[in-house]
Design goal:
2 copies of one chain form a homodimer.
Chain A (H helix, E strand, L loop, with lengths): L1 H17 L2 E9 L16 H13 L6 E2 L8 E11 L5 H11 L4 E9 L11 E9 L13 E2 L6 H9 L3 E4 L16 E12 L2 E8 L6 H13 L6 H7 L14 E7 L1
Parallel strand pairs in A: 3-10, 5-6
Antiparallel strand pairs in A: 1-3, 1-4, 2-3, 5-9, 5-10, 7-8, 8-9
Helix pairs in contact in A: 2-3, 4-5
Chain lengths: 263, 263
């Protein structure tokens, strides 16, 4: 009986290895009422909400890996995550079921199978973040959760010129809060572009780079505002000293959108 | 003593008559979490919030009169209200104080003194409402409170043609829910334009007219959707029967914005 059972057990293992599948998910979320992508201190998280909906739909525990963690209050127009299943699934039906279960602040935009080598975080070639500055004298009620209302008079030419000094390959230690336990981490990143785009009631800063350190976009935005008001001046100096204290404070989370990830 | 006091009392009355002032206020609000412009059933109202802030700032009870009542969940980019004070006031300081006291969902955009003949409701020459239809296959989390997500396939040409039949001077009885106790009210209004404007993720219906009956914009929008899906067809017939039951259901409140009032 034992001899007869062995080949059958091998066959089951073999079969399960073949149908192991990896899936890529693109999702949008309004981060206003969430504790961020990854939950901390028992706050409700985007990742947790999606994992719960997936687990309910598929009747098994499912973990997802996001391209990057967004903080509490930060939004995403196209966050990417991957997950693995050991059985094939009807993706169109799964997407519809997930969107039916998820709160209306989170929506799965697409779901597709990807090769096993794909990794939402490590396969990313570039990421684009948008930061919305609201500059009207009276803040619009409709922008309160989706922009930073800056009352001060800003010298936009100074800010554009400072932004140009950030383009290229730099050690961005001065612009990250990653120091805690991460002193050895390579903090060199390439910022491909930092564009100022006029929009109704303000300006959108478009950041595109090969990767971003923790709070890097918000710290750069906060620093550019300090440069716009004349409190700070030299980006090359701030970059050179490799010290977070040399840069400006972080811009608030609600103005930040993870806009696009390229693979 | 009585004779000497009489002229002094008259002088005070005379003085108070001279400085009686009327003020016009333009305000924007996100109606998502409010029970409408005017409170009902003890829900929190826009009018109540503004009156409370005004009364706090001016240390006396102040009532405001709005150009029109918006329902729960309906928004305004430029609602107009007037109020009267029997003393002059620093309008710039008052605007700043009000915006400091009001919740961030409500903002006073401007405050100016107006002639005594001005009335926020009766002096209005035209009003413009926008209704936002969201037509993407998956609803955006950022539009959930500011549009109506319509999943059905719509024949937009049919809808545009039907909209053209609404332009002009008509009895809009079929498109209002005002019947309760208002049977004698004149329900003839002039719709100057009803434009379809493409925007990201959908279409904006722009209604401009000399005045709008209760729920008229939402009832017209709901009817146009029924025409777009083929459930209803003839606007002239719906107008002619003067019966609310002949038109389609009201579109939900969150897609509606009071956009502009001309005096």
């Amino acid at each position: 009986m034992q001899n007869a059972g062995f080949p059958a057990f091998c066959l089951i293992l073999f079969h399960r290895t073949i149908v192991w599948m990896k899936y890529k998910m693109i999702l949008a979320y309004d981060g206003t009422s969430f504790g961020g992508w990854q939950s901390q201190h028992n706050s409700n998280s985007i990742q947790g909400s999606v994992e719960q909906a997936l687990s309910t739909c598929l009747r098994m525990p499912v973990s997802i890996t996001g391209a990057g963690r967004t903080d509490a209050g930060v939004h995403a127009r196209a966050q990417v995550a991957h997950f693995c299943l050991d059985l094939p699934t009807d993706l169109l039906r799964l997407k519809t079921s997930l969107n039916g279960l998820l709160p209306s602040q989170i929506r799965i935009l697409s779901l597709e199978s990807v090769p096993d080598e794909f990794h939402a975080r490590y396969s990313a070639v570039s990421k684009t973040y948008h930061y919305h500055l609201h500059l009207d004298p009276v803040p619009s009620p409709f922008k309160r959760c989706y922009s930073w209302h800056v009352k001060k008079n800003l010298d936009l030419d100074r800010m554009r010129s400072a932004a140009a000094d950030l383009i290229g390959r730099h050690d961005f230690t001065s612009f990250t809060n990653e120091s805690r336990g991460n002193e050895q981490k390579n903090k060199v990143r390439t910022l491909h572009r930092l564009d100022f785009v006029e929009e109704i009631g303000g300006i959108r800063l478009e950041f595109e780079g090969d990767g971003f350190l923790y709070k890097m976009v918000r710290n750069i935005t906060g620093t550019l505002i300090e440069i716009g008001t004349g409190k700070l001046s030299s980006i090359p100096l701030i970059l050179a000293v490799l010290d977070r204290k040399s840069a400006g404070p972080a811009a608030p989370p609600q103005g930040l959108f993870l806009h696009r990830i390229v693979y």
